[in-house]
Amino acid sequence: MLIEKTKFISKTTITKNTYLIKVLSPSIARTARPGQFCNIKVSENSFPLLRRPFSICDVDGEFIYFMFDIHGEGTRLLREKNEGEGLDILGPLGVGFNLKGDYDTAIIIAGGLGSAPFPFLTKNIPANMEIHSFVGGRSKENVIEYKMKNVSVATDDGSYGFHGNVVELFKSRNDEFAARKIKVFACGPNPMLKALQNFCNEKNIECQLSVETVMACGFGICQGCPIEKYDGVGYLLVCKDGPVFDSLAVRL
Questions:
Q1: Neighbours of 129 (CB within 10 A)
Q2: Residue among 215, 189, 225 nearest 74 (CA)
């Protein structure tokens, strides 16, 4: 874990309200793993007081990419950064995806901005591994397919792809993978993750869930992001023990 004074390089619009920023951060880039996150200080003054957590979207050499949408003052300030401005970043933080295991097909399931960690994951999945990506959104403009492979889309309103949510889409296609050894990697809103968790646990499908929650410190000191263990005995911390958990480890 490092605090690095980085430099803002560029900003790209992904969808109407979704942005991708590129920062120069050689030290963090060198040690980052798919599924980890960074806490970013979005302004030079004391407001907003707390850093904001962002999934590491991708790493390319000394550069890190973060994807975000505008949902408050912190992300608005980040969008307004200009090329060459400095950023104060803490990372890499948390436990990322575990790519090990007995499987030949990686299934990626993303809801909305839950697509953010998957470009980095996709490039780190072994080349001989088959990848299928299932991406969902409320409507066509909320679907994020950035740097994902073999994408199938679901929208709640039916404006693009399958009419329904992304978990329903995966369920409808699950028979296609019956003869394969699959492992699921997922990120999105908690109701989506819970539905997927229930299905995968029932079907004995290995599944990892990247959980979204508010994280203040980012490394376990504040104890502000507890998540109940699956057996109901005790808690884990999303920032320190996650944000990626096995579907059999936590209760959503």
A1: 12
A2: 215
